[in-house]
Design a protein that fits this description.
This protein is of the alpha/beta class and 156 residues long. The longest helix is centred in the N-terminal third of the chain and has 19 residues. A 5-stranded mixed beta sheet has the order 2-1-3-4-5. It is built from 4 helices and 5 strands.
C-alpha cells in the first residue's frame, strides 16, 4: 500500500472528510473514517467522543470498525481504513488486532499518532502481519481539520 496515492484513494479520503465535517456539525471533533474492501466502502465512522455523551473510545476509526459487517471479517487483510487523521495508539491497536491490511491517513498527528510504533511491534507483527501505511494524503484539507479538532478538544 505504500507508494503514491491513487485517484480512488483521494475519492475515499474525500468521503472521510465529509464524515469529519458531519462529526464537527454534531459538536464532535472533525475526524472521519471509512473502511473499504476492494474499492467499495463497507463501513463508515465519525468521531463521537463528545456528543451525545462523553466517551473517549468513540474515535472515528473505532466507530467504523464497529460497523464492519461480521461476514466480511474473514477478508480483513484486504480491507483499508481511510482516516482523516493518523490513527492514535488505541485505534491502531484495534486495526492491527483486527487484521486490517492497509491504513491511509490524511494528516500526521505528531503528538498522538502511531505510525512511529510500527518498527517497534513484537516479532509476530512482521511486515507481512501488520498494516501497510500510506499518508499523509490531502494534508491541505486534513491538517485544517486536525487544527480544528485540537482547538475543540482544548475548549473542554
Amino acid at each position: 500500500m505504500q507508494g503514491e496515492p491513487t485517484e480512488n484513494d483521494f475519492k475515499l479520503m474525500q468521503r472521510a472528510v465529509q464524515l469529519a465535517l458531519q462529526a464537527e456539525s454534531n459538536g464532535n471533533l472533525p475526524i472521519g473514517a471509512v473502511i473499504t474492501l476492494g474499492n467499495e466502502i463497507v463501513a463508515e465512522g465519525l468521531n463521537s467522543i463528545l456528543v451525545p455523551e462523553f466517551n473517549p473510545s468513540k474515535h472515528a476509526e473505532m466507530n467504523a470498525l464497529d460497523a464492519v459487517p461480521v461476514q466480511l471479517w474473514a477478508r480483513a487483510g484486504e480491507m483499508t481504513c481511510y482516516s482523516t487523521l493518523e490513527p492514535c495508539c488505541m485505534c491502531f491497536g484495534r486495526l492491527l488486532l483486527s487484521g486490517i491490511g492497509n491504513i491511509v491517513f490524511g494528516a500526521h498527528d505528531l503528538q498522538g499518532g502511531s505510525i512511529c510504533l510500527t518498527p517497534h511491534l513484537p516479532s509476530y507483527y512482521s511486515p507481512q502481519n501488520s498494516p501497510k501505511w500510506l499518508g499523509p494524503i490531502m494534508p491541505e484539507v486534513c491538517n485544517l481539520l486536525f487544527e480544528r479538532a485540537k482547538a475543540r478538544y482544548n475548549e473542554l
